[in-house]
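Supplementary Methods S3. Input chains for the assembly prediction are listed below.
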Amino acid sequence: MKAVVVAGGFGLDNLRVEERPDPEPGPGDVVVEMRAVSLNYRDLLMVRGSYNPRQPLPLIPASDGVGTVVAVGSGVTRVGVGDRVCPIFATGWLSGEPSRDKLKTTLGGPFDGTLCQRMKIGGDAVVRVPSFLSDFEAACLPCAGVTAWSALVTHGQLTAGDTLLALGTGGVSIFGLQLAKALGARVVITSSSDDKLERARELGADVLLNYRRNPEWGKAARDATGGRGVDHVLEVGGAATFGHSLRAVRPGGTISIIGNLGGGSIELNLLGVLMQNIRLQGVIVGHRESFEALIRAVEQNQLRPVVDRVFGFDEVKSALEHLASGNHFGKVCVDITARR
Amino acid sequence: MKAVVVAGGFGLDNLRVEERPDPEPGPGDVVVEMRAVSLNYRDLLMVRGSYNPRQPLPLIPASDGVGTVVAVGSGVTRVGVGDRVCPIFATGWLSGEPSRDKLKTTLGGPFDGTLCQRMKIGGDAVVRVPSFLSDFEAACLPCAGVTAWSALVTHGQLTAGDTLLALGTGGVSIFGLQLAKALGARVVITSSSDDKLERARELGADVLLNYRRNPEWGKAARDATGGRGVDHVLEVGGAATFGHSLRAVRPGGTISIIGNLGGGSIELNLLGVLMQNIRLQGVIVGHRESFEALIRAVEQNQLRPVVDRVFGFDEVKSALEHLASGNHFGKVCVDITARR
Amino acid sequence: MKAVVVAGGFGLDNLRVEERPDPEPGPGDVVVEMRAVSLNYRDLLMVRGSYNPRQPLPLIPASDGVGTVVAVGSGVTRVGVGDRVCPIFATGWLSGEPSRDKLKTTLGGPFDGTLCQRMKIGGDAVVRVPSFLSDFEAACLPCAGVTAWSALVTHGQLTAGDTLLALGTGGVSIFGLQLAKALGARVVITSSSDDKLERARELGADVLLNYRRNPEWGKAARDATGGRGVDHVLEVGGAATFGHSLRAVRPGGTISIIGNLGGGSIELNLLGVLMQNIRLQGVIVGHRESFEALIRAVEQNQLRPVVDRVFGFDEVKSALEHLASGNHFGKVCVDITARR
Amino acid sequence: MKAVVVAGGFGLDNLRVEERPDPEPGPGDVVVEMRAVSLNYRDLLMVRGSYNPRQPLPLIPASDGVGTVVAVGSGVTRVGVGDRVCPIFATGWLSGEPSRDKLKTTLGGPFDGTLCQRMKIGGDAVVRVPSFLSDFEAACLPCAGVTAWSALVTHGQLTAGDTLLALGTGGVSIFGLQLAKALGARVVITSSSDDKLERARELGADVLLNYRRNPEWGKAARDATGGRGVDHVLEVGGAATFGHSLRAVRPGGTISIIGNLGGGSIELNLLGVLMQNIRLQGVIVGHRESFEALIRAVEQNQLRPVVDRVFGFDEVKSALEHLASGNHFGKVCVDITARR
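Predicted structure tokens for the full assembly:
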């Protein structure tokens, strides 16, 4: 089988397609024939070497994907041959509290990821996905989908009538928008593009803020709640946005610290966090139980992850460059079955 | 001003309209000119003397209602003259944990209730209501609406993809159905009437169970979840239904014990509760903070409480008889401004 | 190896010691040489056939025990040969929400239990125990200990200054007393024996209620809180005690429904539950994550489970009869290594 | 009556004792004859003008104190003349979620504080204190005590067997140490002074870290948990300590952001927060319901706040300078009844 690997050193230029032996399932394992992958900002950081500079190479990148079970090892009963499944992000984190050990079981680093034709993985570490989703849509769930769910529901308990501020139109933000609308919440969303804001409105966004035209968008988000402040911020920006997020959020509200961060540090005024009783919640995706809850929500509400663009199996470098450009709306995907 | 009172003894036959002095607001109080009232099963029990046999008479019954602020006492800043407001159910319970003292401040017994033309009440004990609701719709919020909210959200943390089982089509059940749909949840509902089930479907119910035709409806509800069991039951029935509710609910799920109970006892098999790790949660309406959260959800999702029928101010006895008949779908209301 | 089995029919008279083949560990398994077992009321109900009349026989009863790992199968890394471990009650419930499938993995029925010399069990389904505990003390943790922990901490979030009402002096109640004291809470305890009450005082109980001399002990417990009501009741009694527990608990408080129930039903006045916003929480032991948290608490606070009496491996019938008599204080244990 | 005020400009040199008219209680108010005050770092920042540069002057500083009710206005039933009470920090925050309005009702800025002989305050905004505490001890509860409680219990749900890392030996840290021990938790504490560490050990601290001798104290704290990481950090230091706190805490753990901060900003590596699923919780004291729960814990566990040193009513400047020096262990108090 073939796999995309980063080898010989970090960097997009070190990505190549390699031949690997077909995996055989051990006891408790399954083998999944991968069909689609979606990319996350973490994958870009990982390939560049900035997520974990000590990650051994070669590495098969990416953690989001979907495929079909083609073989099962002894003792596997949760899934069977022919099931369409997604691997989970941290293969050892099924439910409950995280731990250092559980967080060392993540795909796309340190473990090999989803950018391959056949993937061996524990039978406990996959989740069946709803049939109404396309492969590309389903491939967006494990990382971007579960991250949005963990932030809004598992940690944030967002509920009907609450207000969410979503920053930008990347994968987690758009998923957050969709979930928040399914939950009966109100959504304020930001972008520098009126076109993207218009697309967000079509997905249900209630308040659109062009942060170019409205540099004081944190205050504008707060004003949009009648001065009360938003209940939850999906903070994906980091240094450039954090001050605005703090201005937007209500006392006692939550700012989820998630994915798309540039890897750098921010200046944080702790006094502001303290004085308004703010909660900052780091969200490293989530466990399988959250994924299964997400699946039920996706199925009940017929939520379709938004796919920005699909690249071929031989175009992963271009796909990651597109992701890095910030020009996408929703998720950037790779078709494992197609070369372009 | 005029008020409906139960006087001289308990019973529907002891209801009458009486003249009372116009109230004046003390420091911190407001006076509300009532426009509409909605009735709850608790009001029926209270008038009959079975809710609290030691309730002193005369009593102005009912806790749900809406009106317009016509006078404010010194120090009141939360609301002003002209605001349309609902009184809250327990006037001393603004947020946080309940206490015996807080639960002694409920309207319609022990305190005089809403079936009157002018009502004096603490300025802390009213909540402004959205303008898009009619008076009759708004009058349904404080007790039936807040009860459903407390059960599903404050205690139950129902979320998208969860399944709710609502018993029957009374006020709390129908509100629960509407809220659950706004939250992205799935709803199974029961009735003995196919017509009512059809109306529930129009409000979004996913699974309809006619308990006459399907006496094993608890098992049927569980089957409708693929055997997993429902996450939450709004239990309004009591002795006749509890065993079915226990069969329907998933391990670790919640059965909310609410309103419409006949006042009697049930045979409860504790071993079943224990072995499935079930939670039974008594829900005595809720605090003002829950009411305010409900208002935000109602406004964001444009939820309209379902009004079954409106009676005149001189028809309270007939209204309570209609409520007792169980033939209603949604809420039974009284128009304070009209005689029939 | 030898095992105690109930065979040929339910009932204490059908208990016997049988020879069984020595178990070999499969992939992921461990074999534990058992040293001590503690008995729970559930074991008594199970042997009598009243817990689950459809339980297939023969069955090795009991779920609580401790022993030493003597063999590990491939892939086991959590524990090694020589470790002293307890099996967990539900071998498939490691953390998170329960499910029907997880609750079907319990020891001592439907799965064979701990009353044997060598036990094969999944390597995920054991927990290392602190060295300062004797074997008999350690054997009390998995079921009685975890049940008390789940009730008070996982579900109940009992904290310093709260008041616990513990009914009687059986295993869960005494463990609940010890944990509550470690948590800085106040404890009210009941018994019909002044001697037992005195022993409870030595373990830290703050208020002693002899329910023979004080038949209105529910009200007395409430009075002991200055009328506020206790925050939590460990309800092990069932029909005879429930009304008193309801009188004791504060509005918004919790009654945990646990273990020692006679298997029957109770008359429950739902109106009382509803009007005081009471939570009844069924507690079917708990998951491994709770067990591990309990271990940390036991170690930090040097808590020693109270062992009432130790029986020989050939005295299980007498041990269960002693348990049934209600004359114990704390846990009834079996020494797997000794015949009497 | 006399009051300490900062007037004419910010700064310790602008503190003076002034004559003010004796307050009279309005409806719902009480007048408290103050006996003792304890100082917080916030008071120092407030007097210097760095907490809120727009605070109008003159201002009576300080929010912690205790005194005796000497007059009650109409409608006050919670307390009576002769009761010994503490004012609460935010007089409008009785329970539930904070809000901008509630957080504008804090004593010692924007409202006048406790450094006065007679104080008028809402009858809802005081809490009776246990008689076993001295005035100086009781004066430490409203701000330092409630902050520690909110951090550890209300937000943090610290429980038996958890590990707390307390930074330094200021008021909140020492209170956190005492509460954590009452809760059955393990405590790691830091200081630059072996003498102070020894005193912490006498109060129950399990692990002592001299951060001068052990500059990698964050890692040392983590090592003290066997590599698992501490469950909770009481972070009072800010820029200089935050990186160490992040290294100490376990995945999924909580860092409470509290009091003694220098008012500046920190460099925060969000990627570390994200990758370990850390929660940062700002804690601005807490509501009256938390205060009342704290009182129950203090009473049950006979916790005595640690008073470092008592200054006279005319020595407030010296007292604040002592606080600023960082040489204290526990709380710095002022005796309202004494001049030195």
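Chain D touches chain C through 21 residues (CB under 8 Å). Chain D has two domains: 2-140+305-335, 145-282.
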